[in-house]
Design goal:
The protein has about 725 residues and is of the alpha/beta class. The chain has 29 helices and 18 strands. The relative contact order is 0.06.
């Protein structure tokens, strides 16, 4: 076998070692499933085999299914739908059910099988372990995690997870694992009843083998006579409350936007009332239903396939090869600069953290000290590792320490003159091969590069706040930025485990152009008299993580005010005031309401608690509307305002790859993940239908809903944005 090695010891216990070649992690591909079928048959039919232990020779047990391969297979079936829909659906079910059938054969093979779990076992990897009769997990591996991430990409556990977990630990206890993608450690899994024992890694296989020899007639509990669900069946007084309340709880969390959640509940509910063989078919049926849902298809494409490709440097120019970033200079030790220093040190990079005085530089390093101390306290980090990370950060005022850096990140506030002076000071010292990156939010990189003596090595590296929590980095090309500089910026982004997208230069770049449309639409509705609570809640119902008013508070109203002043200065007579101008000006100049940072903005803050400022009605120009719009109308305004701007950036060539546009929208500002991103949202709606609805919104609310000519042209020919621009994603 290619993916497994089988050794039978003197006691007749087969050790099956999972080790897929040319992969850093084992995954469940079609070839792997075929080989599992082979060794299941072997241990079942070979009388010399008394039982088996399955483990991995890699650092992790199994990372789950190969979604990229499955996506290609499903795509072929989708292509057959128009010819014979029912035949295509039967073929899809057979493909999906295959893994369930193989795992069912494993647990009914007539021999005891135990899993020796080293490292993480997620999704189908965890389901493989659950199909064994016993499980042993390494308690000394800090990276070991067990769980089901499927719901995060719009799927459900499709290899028995929705059926075995409730039968092991009860319906109520299974819900967080299945619905919330909760990961658990070895000891927690033992306490829940999902793992038999947690032992040191070097004792794993011996413990599993001992169990196999001690349990020659092992079978799964649900295959035994008179099996009862722990905690009660769904129709019992104990089990009924979960299904009485769970749909409402799911609706509250997801607003009905994520089809995987209700399908998980249905699979669990229906499957728990029938024998296991029928239950697994129910699970596969609901899995197929999700696969056919455009939302799921978009989520898999964006959140898994596209993200993997982009995270590996998929945007790197063809002329360049990956390089190493070992030392960086961060100029500006405020919240953004401190965050860049922290994630860099966490990635093993040496950091010179510069500010105007030593006190400010030291304060910047303190962020890393605080965050690391939290990790140590929670047991996620050792004191030794914390000390090593902090030792990599040198807070200073001395620019000469930048003499051997590979890259600079300038992270001072939005002022062109200040950034220009810092550029000159740094370039007097740094090596010729070093790349200078500005973390500007809105100022065009080409304008900032005028202060550089080598604009070919000048680039934008735009982080999102807070840096240590936000996944996206925008790499912005100036007019003279070289492919070498782009590649070095990508080296840095991938080293610190961020998702990088490459965009052309324009005011606001890609993410901020779109996010400002989002925030502005909140201002527009506030100005028109829509109640603030409806603006915020309607936005959450649309799938956004926070409302536009809340988001403005988080990024700081005074920052928006500074950007407004800088934009007015830069554009001069060409600047056109919008509905936000008087609101944001009054919030700062009249009320000193800067947002969460000073405890008052569109919300009033009391620790973690917050409530909308009661005086917001004053910003309704003609008073608060007596007849408020529907939540659906608010949802459309919020989503369309952002998506139109995303399409506009593609039409202008600011961003060329729809994969990057989608990832940027989700990870940059939280565009409704269930859509797959702003571009996928347009394609899923259908461009003709999207343009029609946008025109209705434009006629009612204003020119912010005017679509670019590109979409009108594409609507006539029934094209999609991925079809026209997604050649790289094919």
């Amino acid at each position: 076998m290619k993916h497994f090695k089988l050794d039978i010891d003197k006691d007749g216990v087969a050790l099956i070692t999972f080790d897929s070649p040319e992969r850093s992690m084992n995954v469940l591909s079609q070839d792997v499933i075929t080989e599992i079928q082979e060794w299941v048959t072997k241990i079942s039919e070979d009388e010399t085999v008394k039982g088996a232990v399955i483990t991995s020779s890699k650092a992790a047990f199994c990372a789950g299914a190969n979604l990229e391969e499955l996506g290609g297979q499903f795509g072929a079936v989708f292509g057959e739908m128009q010819k014979d829909e029912q035949a295509a659906k039967r073929k899809l079910f057979d493909m999906v059910f295959r893994l369930n059938a193989v795992f069912r054969a494993l647990e009914t093979c007539g021999k005891p099988v135990a899993a020796a779990i080293n490292g993480l076992a997620l999704g189908g990897g965890f389901e493989l372990a659950l199909a064994c009769h016993a499980r042993f997990a390494a308690n000394d591996d800090p990276k070991l995690r067990l769980g089901f991430p499927e719901v995060m990409v719009g799927l459900l556990p499709g290899a028995g997870g929705t059926q075995r977990v409730p039968r092991m630990i009860g319906l109520m206890n299974a819900a967080p694992l299945l619905l919330q993608a909760k990961n658990i450690k070895a000891e927690e899994a033992v306490g829940m009843g999902l793992v038999n024992a947690a032992v040191p890694g070097d004792e794993l296989i011996d413990a599993a083998k001992a169990w196999v020899l001690e349990n020659p007639k092992a079978k799964q509990p649900w295959d035994a006579d008179r099996f009862k669900f722990p905690g009660g069946n769904p129709w019992s007084p104990q089990g009924f409350p979960m299904f009485a309340g769970a749909p409402a709880m799911v609706r509250k969390e997801s607003y009905g936007n994520y089809p995987a959640m209700p399908n998980i509940l249905r699979a669990v509910y229906e499957g728990s009332q029938v024998p296991m063989d029928a239950a697994l078919r129910i699970e596969s049926r609901y899995f197929c239903e999700l696969i056919l849902n455009p939302k799921t298809q978009n989520m898999i494409r964006s959140l898994f396939i596209s993200k993997q490709a982009i995270d590996k440097g998929g945007a790197r120019p063809a002329s360049q090869k990956p390089g190493a970033i070992n030392k960086v200079g961060v100029i500006g030790a405020g919240f953004m600069g401190a965050g860049v220093a922290y994630v860099s040190a966490m990635a093993g990079i040496e950091v010179v953290l510069i500010d105007r005085d030593q006190e400010s530089a030291d304060k910047g390093k303190a962020l890393s000290e605080t965050e690391q101390a939290k990790r140590v306290k929670r047991g996620k980090q050792t004191q030794e590792k914390m000390d090593a990370i902090l030792a990599r950060i040198t807070p200073t005022t001395d620019y000469s320490l930048l003499s051997d850096v590979d890259l600079i990140v300038e992270a001072v506030f939005e002022n062109s003159e200040l950034k220009a002076s810092i550029t000159k000071m740094a370039e007097d010292v740094i090596p010729k091969t070093a790349v200078f990156g500005s973390n500007t939010s809105t100022i065009p990189i080409t304008d900032l590069a005028q202060a550089s003596s080598r604009p070919e090595n000048f680039i934008g590296i735009h982080f999102f706040s807070p840096v240590h929590k936000m996944a996206l980095v925008e790499i912005i090309k100036g007019k003279e930025t070289s492919e070498y500089a782009i590649s070095r910026a990508l080296d840095f982004a991938t080293r610190i485990k961020k998702t990088p997208i490459v965009v052309e230069d324009t005011r606001g770049f890609y993410a901020n152009r779109c996010v400002m449309r989002y925030i502005n639409e909140g201002y527009n509705m506030l100005s028109e008299g829509v109640k603030p609570a409806l603006i915020e809640q309607g936005t959450r119902m649309a799938g956004m993580p926070v409302g536009p008013l809340s988001l403005q508070d988080e990024v700081a109203i005074d920052l928006g005010y500074k950007i407004l002043q800088q934009t007015k200065s830069d554009l001069g007579n060409q600047y056109e005031a919008g509905k936000m101008d008087p609101i944001i000006t009054a919030m700062i100049e009249k009320y000193d309401r800067k947002g969460r940072k000073n405890g008052k903005g569109f919300y009033d803050y009391n620790g973690r608690e917050k409530s909308l400022w009661p005086e917001l009605g004053q910003f309704a120009v003609d008073g608060v509307l007596e007849d408020q719009p529907s939540a659906a109308e608010v949802k459309d305004r919020i989503l369309y305002a952002q998506a139109i701007e995303a399409a506009r950036t593609m039409a202008e060539g600011i961003i060329a790859d729809p994969r990057e546009a989608d990832l940027g929208s989700i990870f940059g500002w939280g565009f409704a993940p269930y859509t797959g991103g702003a571009i996928s949202f347009i394609d899923m709606t259908g461009i003709a239908a999207f343009v029609k609805r946008a025109d209705e919104l434009r006629d009612t609310y204003g020119d912010q809903f005017e679509v670019p000519a590109l979409l009108r042209d594409m609507a006539k020919s029934n094209e999609t944005l991925y079809g026209r621009f997604g050649k790289k994603a094919a």
